[in-house]
Amino acid sequence: MSTQSVVTAIKVIETISLHQPIGLSDIAKQLDSSKATVLRMLSTLKELNWVAQSESRDAAWSLTIHAYAVTARASIGANLRDVAIGPMNGLQLDTQETVHLCVPDGDALVVVERLDTPHVLRAFLALGTQIPLHASATGLAFLAASSDAYVHDILGGSLEKVSDQTKTQPSSVWQLIRESRERGYSINAEGLSSGITSVGAAIVSSAGKPLGCVSISGPSSRIVAAKFEDYGTAVARTAREISDLLGQRSLGGAGRVRH
After folding, report:
1. CB–CB of 73/98 below 8 Å?
2. Given the DSSP bridges, would you call strands 186-189 and 61-63 parallel, antiparallel or unpaired?
3. Could you give the domains of the chain?
4. Spatial separation of the C-alpha atoms in residues 68 and 50, rounded to whole Å
5. Where are the transmembrane segments (predicted)?
6. Whole-number Å distance between alpha carbons of 114 and 144
7. Secondary structure class of 249 (helix, strand, coil)
8. What string of pLDDT tens digits covers the 259 residues of the chain?
9. What's the order of all strands across the beta sheet hosting 186-189?
10. Which of 15, 36, 50, 151 is the most exposed place for a label (fewest CB within 10 A)?
11. Three-state secondary-structure class, residue 184
């Protein structure tokens, strides 16, 4: 397989992971490539059990469990999840709300674990979902634990408005970051999804560098202002517990993360 083929295969996998289920035409459009080229790559990836095509009329493509299993074995995601799952279970039982675990993925975060609430009305982010740093509780917590230089770098880029309540002015996001630093946890009221409020805290290395974040998420009708302090204290405590456990295991770096 040529270098260009490898690049195309990776781009196809990344595109599917962001937009799945997604059809052939949409994949080709996202990659600015021909449908014939993309179809050849999809056929190869299907043979290798990385992607699967639905049997429905739209015949959309999605990643397989095999693809997630391979990526989940990556160092920081797998190691952090193994360490975090116990404290996360305790947090979910205490709050009865959805708990997410995210790790860095370039200039965003990606969801690597989710513990669901027993409530019918719930927050939901699929595993593998990319989370913008400026518009989420986990992202704000990550930025709050990062250096000012890193924050300036992120806020100097494009800040997408992903919901009606997303803060897209750098000064407004800076204010949320400063408040998160003062409290020890972040609050994101409907900045990522309308009707969903979250609180988050950063998991840090022994050197104080953020390795990931944990959050509590749920409908804004349940996660009201009166619960912010209790939930924030709980999620910050959980993040510290995970950080301490990571320190005991002497976990190393988190890939390409700039701070």
Report:
1. no
2. unpaired
3. 3-64 (1.10.10.10), 74-248 (3.30.450.40)
4. 9
5. none
6. 22
7. coil
8. 567 788 888 899 989 988 888 999 999 999 998 989 999 999 999 988 889 888 777 788 988 867 765 665 555 556 788 899 999 999 999 999 999 999 988 889 989 899 998 888 878 888 888 899 999 999 999 999 999 999 999 999 999 998 999 999 999 999 999 999 999 999 999 999 999 999 999 999 888 899 999 999 999 999 999 999 999 999 999 999 999 998 876 544 444 444 4
9. 130-132, 108-115, 98-105, 210-219, 196-204, 186-189
10. 36
11. coil
In the chain, DSSP assigns E strands to 51-53, 61-63, 98-105, 108-115, 130-132, 186-189, 196-204, 210-219
Q: Which two tokens stand for residue 203?
A: 């998991």
Instruction: Count how many residues are written for the chain.
Output: 259
First to last CA, the chain: 36
Token code pair at residue 147: 């250096």
Q: Residue for token digits 């630093």?
A: 181
The Cα 21–Cα 37 span in angstroms is 19
Among the listed residues 26, 110, 10, 35, the one whose alpha carbon sits nearest the alpha carbon of residue 61: 26
